[in-house]
Design a protein that fits this description.
138 residues, alpha+beta, STM4215-like, 5 strands, 20% helix, 45% strand, elongated
Length: 138
């Protein structure tokens, strides 16, 4: 049985890093990050094994973080989200590359939500999306 959580996170990072207009980080961003960015992480997973195969249902989170001096511009986060979706789901088939020994199936975005935060100098507008996958071990 393969640990699929790390493999799917690597597949997401390999697809997005350098392919979209902002920096992409796994799990957390550096504290000195001054520009818009995306954090990807695995939220959860559920084993769906049976007598003939091993498979997991894994949830990956994309957290798009945009920063503004005054007024929030929602279109910035939506544009980054569009870039991500164009790569992850360019057609009914995913753009994610299958890791060795694993097939990625049934990729879909389940939910998305928005957060607005502020500190003494900036406003942060975030779009957080949950993607589910079936990872079938070959």
């Amino acid at each position: 049985m393969i640990n699929t959580a790390g493999l799917i996170l690597d597949a997401w990072y390999d697809l997005l890093s350098g392919s979209i207009s902002v920096d992409v980080f796994k799990e957390d961003a550096p504290s000195d990050q001054e520009a818009n960015y995306v954090v990807i992480s695995v939220e959860s997973g559920t084993a769906s094994n049976n007598k003939s195969n091993f498979s997991d249902e894994v949830v990956v989170i994309t957290d798009i973080v945009t920063m503004f001096g005054n007024n929030v511009d929602r279109s910035v986060a939506e544009g980054i989200d569009g870039e991500i979706n164009a790569l992850v789901l360019p057609t009914r088939q995913t753009g994610l590359t299958n890791p060795s020994g694993v097939q990625i199936l049934n990729v879909k975005r389940d939910t998305f939500s928005y957060l607005i935060e502020a500190d003494s100098s900036k406003k942060y507008y975030r779009k957080i999306s949950r993607y589910t996958h079936t990872l079938f071990q070959q």
